[in-house]
Amino acid sequence: YGKNTIKFLRLHREGKKHFVKEVEVCTHLRLSSAQEYLNGNNSSVIPTDTIKNIVLLLAKEKGIPTLEQFATDICEHFMISFCQVVYVKTYIQEVPWQRLHENGVPHVHSFICVPDGIRFCEAEQCRNGPLVVFAGIKDLKLMKTTQSGFEGFFRNEHTTLPERNDRILCGELFCKWSYGECRNFDFDCIWNKIRECILEAFAGPADCGEYSPSYQKTVNSIQMLILSQVPQVQVIDTVLNNTFYNVVDMKNLGVTNDKEVLVPVETPYGSCACTLGRK
Question: Is 150 annotated as ligand-binding?
Answer without folding.
Answer: yes
